[in-house]
Amino acid sequence: RPRVLSGIQPTAGSFHLGNYLGAVRQWVSLQETHDAYYMVVDLHAITIPQDPAELRANTRLAAAQLLAAGLDPERCTLFVQSHVPEHAQLAWVMNCLAGFGEASRMTQFKDKSAKQGADRASVGLFTYPILQVADILLYQANEVPVGEDQRQHIELTRDLAERFNGRFGETFTVPKPHILKETAKIYDLQDPSIKMSKSASTPKGLINLLDEPKATAKKVKSAVTDTETEIRFDPQAKPGVSNLLTIYSTLTGTGIPELQEKYVGKGYGALKTDLAEVMVDFVTPFRERTQAYLDDPETLDSILAKGAEKARSVAAETLATTYDRVGFVPAK
Ligand code: AQP
C-alpha cells in the first residue's frame, strides 16, 4: 500500500469547513486504500504565541474532531506530533540542508509574518515549512493530502528530499501532493476572492464546524453572491455561487451539473436555504460525535498513545538511517 501522511494544527479549536473539505475528508477516504499516518501538529502550533492550557485542550479537541470526521484508529495511525520526538530531530537536519533564500521564498511565512509584524515573527514560524518537510520525509510518504495553500511546502519537501538523496545516497521517498481539484480551495463566504481561513476570514465568512448549527445556517444564508440570478458554476465570473455549489456538491455527493439542473429558474435564496439545511445535517452529528470523544478522555488518550507508538517505530528507523548518512557516530 502506498503511504500518506498529513497533519492539522490544533490552534483554532474548531476545524473550519476549508480544513474539512480541503484535507480531512480526503484523509478519511485514503485510510481505505493507503497506509495512512495523520497527526495533530502541536509543534507547529507554537510557532505563534499560545496559551498552554488552550493548546492542551485544543490538541485533544483536534483529535476528537478527526475521529468524529471518520478516521478509524484501526485503519490509520493517528497521533500527536510532539509524542514523536523524531520530528524535531529530523527537522534540525533539514534546517541545515535548506537554504536561507529558499526558506525566505515561502509565501505562507511572508503572509503570516507580515500580519504579526516581520520583527515579531518567531524563528520557528520561519522554519515551519522545514519542520513540515521532516514530518513528511520521516514516514517515507508517497502522497500528502492537503489543500492548495500547502502546494509550495510540498514542493520544498520534494526539493530537499532530492537534495539529500543526491548528496548522501537514496534515503527518502520523494512525495507528491494529493490535492483534489474540486475542493483544493474553499473560499470565504463573505469574500469569495480569499480562501476560508481561521486567521484571514471575518467571523461571518468562516464556517467553524463546532459552531451552533443555527449560526452556521445563518452564515450560509447571508453568503455573498452576485447581482445576477442564474445558478451556474463559473468560478471566474461567479465566485460566490460557485463556492456554494462546490460545498453543496461535496457534502451531498451530487454532481455540479445535477445541481445546476435542479436550480434552473430558482433564485439564490432557494440554493442557500437548501445548503443551510445540508450544513446543519452535517454539523449536528459531527458536533455530537466530537463531544462523545471528549467525554471519554481516557479512550482518546489511549488511541493517541497507540498511534504514537506505531508512528515512532517508522520515524525512528528513518531518523537512524539519516543520522548515519550524515555522519553521526551511533550512540552505544
Ligand atoms: N480554505 C481552504 N480550502 C481548502 N483547504 C484548506 N485548508 C485550510 N484552509 C483551506 C487545508 O486544511 C489543512 C489543515 O490546515 P492547517 O491546520 O495547517 O491550518 P492552516 O492551513 O494554517 O489553516 P488556515 O485556516 O488556512 O490557517 P491560517 O489562517 O493560519 O492560514 C491543510 O491541508 C490546508 O491546506
TrEMBL record:
It holds the Pfam family tRNA-synt_1b. NCBIfam families: trpS. The gene is trpS. It is an enzyme of class 6 (ligase). InterPro entries: aa-tRNA-synth_I_CS, aa-tRNA-synth_Ic, Rossmann-like_a/b/a_fold, Trp-tRNA-ligase, Trp-tRNA-ligase_bac-type, Trp-tRNA_synthetase. It is found in: Cytoplasm. A motif ('KMSKS' region) lies at residues 195-199. GO terms for biological process: tryptophanyl-tRNA aminoacylation. Homodimer. This is Tryptophan--tRNA ligase. Keywords: Aminoacyl-tRNA synthetase, ATP-binding, Cytoplasm, Ligase, Nucleotide-binding, Protein biosynthesis.
